[in-house]
## 1
Amino acid sequence: EVQLVESGGGLVQPGGSLRVSCAASGFTFSSHWMSWVRQAPGKGLEWVANIKEDGSEKYYVDSVKGRFTISRDNAKKSLYLQMNSLRAEDTAVYYCARIRSGYSAFDFGGQGTLVTVSA
Amino acid sequence: QSVLTQPPSVSEAPRQRVTISCSGSNSNIGNNAVNWYQQLPGKAPKLLIYYDDLLPSGVSDRFSGSKSGTSASLAISGLQSEDEADYYCAAWDDSLNGVLFGGGTKLTVL
């Protein structure tokens, strides 16, 4: 069973930085692309970023390019999202997801971590 | 504004069948697989259908997916009250080089 535990969310001021993490278990972490997906309060799902198995390829939604960095540590079975220059519109629950191999589908396994950007 | 278009809401009576549509374009649905997610109130999303019409292990066969051209559909038969949830379609977009989600459809079981 895919288990993903997100952590690191909290309240941050506009322009500030935050790093959220995701601890993975129940599958071979190093064999899967991974992703971050977010959901603003009362809104729909929004894909944020993808990272290849070995970290050599990364993709981002336009609204976070240049501000957010996705990374991973396969030895620690962990995924990260470093968020800089945060804006109010980045306020959301951030979910970590495993990408099902060959299918580009997300397997969610955690409850997410809430990031609130407010003065 | 989502490039994948879903109806904001649908409703149907218990034991009936409902379909949720997802309309896109050649750069997303027309050229890539469609996945569907269910999000129960207050819960994390869950993969419901992948690669257009495949069911993950453990998902009821009351759920089914289909795709034709640049549109896809999710069908739910034998509606139950526990199916009340938000449903999202998603697909990779070749032009954006990223994943697109539909705006979501809220299902109400009357």
## 2
Amino acid sequence: DGGITQSPKYLFRKEGQNVTLSCEQNLNHDAMYWYRQDPGQGLRLIYYSQIVNDFQKGDIAEGYSVSREKKESFPLTVTSAQKNPTAFYLCASSKGWGSGSIGEQFFGPGTRLTVL
Amino acid sequence: SQQGEEDPQALSIQEGENATMNCSYKTSINNLQWYRQNSGRGLVHLILIRSNEREKHSGRLRVTLDTSKKSSSLLITASRAADTASYFCATVLAGGTSYGKLTFGQGTILTVHP
């Protein structure tokens, strides 16, 4: 089956710890994204990557870091510098932007992070 | 503030009725997309309408786009209990440093009662 997987589904973190959220896709998509969703809110873009070994900050990148060493993988690290990390994190992917028109994004099931 | 803002924030209807959700945005777009999210799940893409299109259909969904008013609407006809979800509009800006990124509205929570 083609799709995006995220793990773990639930994650608990103590204050001061870094945690890494996994995102894997087998859709052969060039672009990948990380979003944060707070209760009753829309999605806010954390980081995105258009191609392997390249990524850009989104609207709320402070306290987060990413890597894109492989096309199919785009892990997100929530660092201790993120002041309010409790949220629902969604990973997405899409075809490349080269055609000049941006199409649909495919989303994973999400990881719910809670800081204890 | 958000590029896309939706109205109403919540909508409650009976099965079989039509549901209409509206989205407004502020700057020129490349396209506008609608997504559905069931509680605690990821988002599912419903439909994309490009800036040079005015109306698009997909099954029971009808989307309109009015670029002069910077607004879009999503109509779900003959709603079902399974349509209960949050619905988000998302815009892709036409150019500049934000090109290619989706900006989401805060969503409309739709409840369809059996």
